[in-house]
Amino acid sequence: MSDAIIGPVVSLYVHVPFCARKCSYCAFYSEPSTGEEINRYVAALTREMEWIQCQRPLQTIFFGGGTPSILNLRQWEEILTTMHRLKLLPAAEFTVECNPATVSLDKARLLHDLGVNRISMGVQSLDEALLDRLGRVHSREMVFKSWDILRKAGFQNLNLDLMFAIPGQTMTVWESTLAEALAMGSEHMSTYEVIYEDDTPLYAQLQAGEVAEDEDLSCAMFEKLVERTVSCGFEQYEIANFARSSIPAGLTATTIPPIPDVPRLACRHNVNYWRGGQFHGLGPGATAYVAGVRSRNWANTQLYCEQIEKGCRAVESSECLPPRRRAGETAAFGLRMPAGWPFATFLEVTGYDLQKEWGDAIQELVAQGWGELSKDSFRLTSEGLRFADSAAQLFLGD
Amino acid sequence: MDAAHIRNFSIIAHIDHGKTTLSDRLLHMTGTIATREMEEQLLDSMDLERERGITIKAHPVTMLYKAKNGETYELNLIDTPGHVDFAYEVSRSLSACEGALLIIDAAQGVEAQTVANVHLAMKQNLTVIPVINKIDLPHANVPQTRQQLEDILAIPAESAIEASAKEGIGIEEILEAIVERIPHPKPTGEVGLQALVFDSYFDTYKGVVSHVRVFNGELKPGMLVKLLHSGKTVEVKEVGSFNPKPYLRDRLQLGETGYITANIKSPQEVKMGDTITDVRSTAGPLPGFKEIHPMVFSGIYPINTSDYEHLKANLGKLQLNDSAFVYQAETSVALGFGFRCGFLGLLHLEIVQERLRREYGMDIIATYPSVIYKVLMTDGTLKQVDNPAFLPEPTYIESIEEPMVKTFVICPNEYIGDMMALISEKRGAIDHTETLDARRVMLTSLLPLNEILIDFHDRIKSITRGYGSMDYEHAGYRQSDMVKLDMLVNAEAVDAFSCIVHRDKAESRGRALAAKLKEVIPRQQYVVAIQAAIGGKVVARETVGALRKDVTAKCYGGDISRKRKLLEKQKEGKKRMKSFGSVNIPQEAFIEVLKA
Question: Which of chain B's termini has less CB crowding within 10 Å, N or C?
Fold first, then answer.
């Protein structure tokens, strides 16, 4: 078997490691900041951008965090003009994560005018008590206000992040949040169960017995989510991601060719992750996957800036798996999408024949009722998706 | 040295009453070792012994002492294991002596172990020299200790020597008493050599090194000698003594103590308590020999099946210096290939397991310990069963007998009620109660050995806040209504969880085990039923609910590497679980349940 056919990198992730306040569930790298530190970061980031080798312009760009929207107008302007100068822009899909507390009309307009065409808003909940519990800085009022600002600035592709199974969240609260969020009419929803990650305050509360997990309730909430989103015209295209297929008039996303079995307004940047695609990662703590190597930048802004200022790459660690294990990893994560793996696509990405290499795993999953095999693809059933981690294990390792 | 100038003695004491410190003092006082060589607890050479403050192996040491009468005596200190698990070893060591120092802590008084050991010494007709130790302690109570000597042990109070081994008080008096009170060795009346083997150890270069006491005649290198009980004839290569390091001697004469080597490669060929005679003589065996049999059995399995050969090699190495430890290969459906191991008692079991873990770095699972049951079959045959897996079907069993022990429990008065409740919970009967002093009593009771295997000692310690002590001696067999309790996981019996219990306790043990299993078996994709059954009848049931999902909610580019590693680790973990039907049971479950 040959190694994957490696083409040009078409995706870019940029990590913005600043937050007004750390949320209680968040394990991402971020730190409180001063204006000066952010300026230094912007200078380093724009310098790092000059070094990347990729297709120009890029297909997808994603600014995540942290809170990317915490950057001020001048800082955004500097980043975006640099990207234009480097011919990274205009990208077909350019997403910036926003916190409802940090969106102003000026900023929204600037982003929109300089090539950002998709905003992902971290709403998490529309219940004040739960927002408080999660340590979010915004209120439900701010969500609606920011929403109007974003629409007014011209954004036609908006995502809402929601969380369920939050400690203290009842089914009733979840249903009303869901109803209100759906009424806002977003194009995309990322909706995931609370994760108790190590080193987060929420995890500490769980360990201390202050909060408890209720598996039955979280399963019921998930079923409610699928039922409600589907009835409102969304399609589940990944375990936690829902998107519409109808494209609003005038959206630039129409320039991207459709992906079979995936809704047109799916986040292509994320689909690229799940389907084993390459991507660059810039900024402190950002990960990249280029030429079969997964690498990660230093998750320390000062160290990151020092390295870049010295003209060095800020890579903290990198890992290159043998081709077959890498292909197994790609198989495992691709199965998070209900579309599963078209065999032709898998072969193109990894250089391996999924059916031949992991025939036993596929048979086992089919026999268990978790997998569905067709002539040219393999996918997990809706039951199988609920056990995607168990299924993934069959493809991982030696 | 002529026999009139030889004294052979041992020291008996409860843990921590100061046996080792006193031994060291005697070695120092007689100039056997210099102060600078004095390392604390010189005689206990194994780390584990030091840590637990107990001596497992007996090391004889020869000292030369110039007494007040101006004459020089050869004093042989034969150290004994201090625990009744090793009662036979103790009795062999004691029979190599004419006398014993009995050490009692002036602050603690007589303890259960002291009673058991004094009984052994008296059976051997030894002259007992009581030593009241630690008299320097502020809460030492010498008069009360003297009183206990008389009341509990029937030893004249005025014969006791007051001492503090730590402070060096009374040491000379003890040495003088050894010379004056302990009789010198006398010939047995037989013709020719008679020497008692009371211990042995394995030396990589010399083979088995046997500790001997010459009762008649003399032992010299080059002699052809016979080991009467094992029937083996060997040529003596080396003869020597310990000071405490081994040194060569040209002979060992009547009454002397030391060691011999004879190119013996297997420790099993040298039986504890055997008699060595000259091949040409007709001298008979010395009294007291017994074949030693293990009393407690447990399966030892490697956690990683690939460690099987490694474990086998290490068990072999352990056995070289512990001939009482026996093992043979066995297989368990649940645990794979391992070994059925026999031990003299609980402490012995713990020591072996601990040494495997610590000294040999092995990851092992030890199954629930079992005693030997005598099963009378309906066809009139008698079967000995030490493994629940081999207990015949109830229909073929006429009756079952279980081993009993006589226990001595000493506890402060205020806990006597709780202690009686514990003994009764453990199916014991109190034979009698004695008042030791104003604050303590001794309960003598008869209990089934299987009831004291696991937590009896710990329970005593916790009931009495550490002040209670316990010891036991074997007390034959008694017919009992024993049944086999099986644990079923999704209707399949898991042999490693089976045990033989009294019918009255089967149900509660079944319930406890089922509850514990529910805790330790992780949720699976299916419902897992856990049942406890006695002869097919289910007495307890627990259910482990099915997993409803196993999926990471959120997974984007930055999570992939970390997530992959986590899933790979979980996959490895599943490989290490044992599968029963479709149920995976983690190794930890076996360990947890055996502790339950």
Answer: N
Burial of B265 (0-12, 13-18, 19+ CB in 10 A): exposed
Chain B residues in contact with A390 (beta carbon < 8 A):
525, 550
pLDDT band at A396 (very low <50, low <70, confident <90, very high): very high
List Cα–Cα distances, B562 to A350, B306, B559, B568, in angstroms: 20, 29, 6, 10
> What is the interface pTM, i.e. ipTM, of the complex?
0.90
B125: left (phi over 0), alpha (psi -120 to 50) or beta: left
Q: Would the pTM of this model clear 0.80, i.e. be above it?
A: no
Could you tell me if A333 lies within 8 Å of chain B, comparing CB atoms? yes
| Domain annotation for chain A: domains and CATH numbers | 11-274 (3.30.750.200), 323-392 (1.10.10)
How many CB atoms are located within 10 Å of the residue B134 CB? 26
Residue pLDDT, tens place only, A2-36: 444 578 999 999 999 998 777 777 776 777 777 88
| pLDDT, position A250 | 60
Q: What is the pLDDT of residue B226?
A: 93
DSSP state of B270: S
Distances from the Cα of A36 to the Cα of A42, A73, A115, A301, B17, angstroms: 10, 14, 26, 12, 71
Q: Given B550, B554, B561, which is nearest A389 (Cβ)? A: B550
Residue scoring higher pLDDT (A29 or A269): A269
Compute how many other C-beta atoms are within 10 angstroms of the C-beta atom of residue A293. Answer: 14
pLDDT in tens, B457-493: 878 878 887 778 888 888 899 999 999 999 998 888 8
Name B540's bridge partners. Answer: B532
Q: Sheet harboring A341-342: ordered strands across?
A: A341-342, A377-380, A371-373
Burial of B359-386, coded b for 16+ CB within 10 Å and e otherwise, reads eeebebbbbbbbbbbebeeeeeeeeebb
Instruction: Determine which of B555, B559, B562, B582 to mutate to test the interface with A (most A C-beta atoms within 10 Å).
Output: B555
The whole-number pLDDT of residue B468 equals 81
Q: What is the pLDDT of residues B501-560, one digit of tens each?
A: 999 999 998 999 999 888 888 888 788 899 999 988 999 999 988 888 888 888 888 889
d(CA B466, CA B462): 6
Q: Do A239 and B560 touch (CB under 8 A)?
A: no
A286 lies within 8 A of chain B by CB: yes
- Please name the amino acid found at residue B155: I
Residue whose entry in the numeric block shows the structure tokens 């094992």 = B230
Phi and psi for A191 in degrees, rounded to 5? Answer: -135, 110
3-state secondary structure of B462: helix
Band (B55; pLDDT cuts 50, 70, 90): very low
Residue B52 pLDDT class (50, 70, 90 cuts): very low
What contacts B480, CB < 8 A, 6 or more positions away?
Answer: B400, B401, B402, B448, B502
Under a CB-based contact definition with an 8 Å cutoff, are residues B256 and B1 in contact? yes
Q: Is the pLDDT of residue B57 over 60?
A: no
CA A177 to chain centre: 21
C-alpha neighbours within 13 Å on the C-beta side of residue A116: 27
Residues in chain A closer than 8 A to B544 (CB atoms): none
